[in-house]
Design brief:
290 residues; alpha/beta; 7-stranded parallel beta sheet; 41% helix; globular
Length: 290
């Protein structure tokens, strides 16, 4: 059980992609449980990505939620693709809040159906994979025993990619899967190296999550390639195919509860974990293996 002050009381968390969606949900959930927050987001669109990304106003709203929970927050508009920008943002946050205990490398984009296609591949890899690595690696000098790193991958990382019926049809979509799979492998090996220091690193694999990324035309088109301009109503029945439980998606709060557990001392001996929050999606598609 957590203390009366909260399950991450007195800790400081660095969260990328914190302006909306899962990142905001994680920031607010950790704040409710006693953590101060360093919140970073790009807060502008990426041309190859076919839906709008978060805005500066979204990041300000995250800050208001955290403050309403009674915690301090330092925000920065920074691009996870640029390690120098991230380093500056993090170090300003650490100087104001005093330390760093938790890293939540959450920032990510869906490059499915992006245009131009190879630019979508590049932007997706740079944001999801390189951006996750940058966030973790600028944080490493600040971490000490008891710290926890949580990276967001995807149930897509666990999918069998041997069947490629139409190579080159959607490089952004393939890049999404590749970026998430490589995050998983990177954290596995990093966690191994951090164990003697008492620093933990784990990966969470969400299935469809009810955010602006999922509720976007490129995602609808990925699930309904038979339609030129599919709507949410067109895509929603097909979203169920990803999960074994009878749901089209999970909520950001479902992922935040897993982040909170991995960030807290309740999971103090849990490291190198690939934690699926996928409503049984993996069970639906894959045989058992260790």
């Amino acid at each position: 059980m957590g203390s009366a002050e909260g399950r991450v009381a007195g800790k400081v968390a660095f969260i990328t992609g914190a302006a909306r969606g899962q990142g905001r949900s994680h920031a607010v959930r950790l704040a409710e449980e006693g953590a101060d927050i360093i919140a970073v987001d790009l807060c502008q669109d990426i041309d190859s990505i076919g839906y709008s990304l978060a805005t500066p106003e979204d990041l300000e709203e995250t800050a208001r939620y955290v403050e309403k929970a009674g915690r301090r927050i330092v925000t920065a508009q920074a691009d996870v693709r640029d390690a120098a920008q991230l380093k500056e943002a993090l170090e300003r946050g650490v100087s104001e809040l005093g330390k760093l205990d938790i890293v939540v490398a959450q920032a990510g984009i869906a490059a499915m159906k992006g245009n131009p296609p190879l630019q979508a591949w590049t932007d997706g890899i740079n944001t999801n994979l390189v951006g996750t690595i940058n966030a973790i690696q600028v944080a490493l000098p600040h971490l000490s025993e008891g710290a926890s790193i949580v990276a967001t991958a995807s149930a897509a990382a666990l999918m069998d990619a041997h069947n490629k019926p139409n190579p080159g049809a959607d490089p952004g979509g393939m890049g999404y899967m590749v970026s998430k799979r490589m995050i998983s492998e990177y954290v596995h090996y990093l966690a191994t190296e951090l164990t003697p220091l008492g620093i933990r690193a784990n990966v969470i694999h969400p299935t469809n999550c009810n955010t602006d990324m999922l509720q976007s035309e490129p995602m609808y088109r990925s699930f309904r390639p038979d339609l030129e301009h599919p709507t949410r109503a067109d895509a929603e029945p097909v979203f169920y195919v990803q999960q074994a439980m009878k749901v089209p998606w999970v909520e950001p709060s479902d992922i935040s509860n897993a982040v909170l557990w991995l960030a807290s001392d309740e999971s103090r001996f849990v490291t190198g974990m690939q934690l699926r929050v996928d409503a049984g999606g993996y069970l639906k598609w894959y045989d058992y293996h260790v």
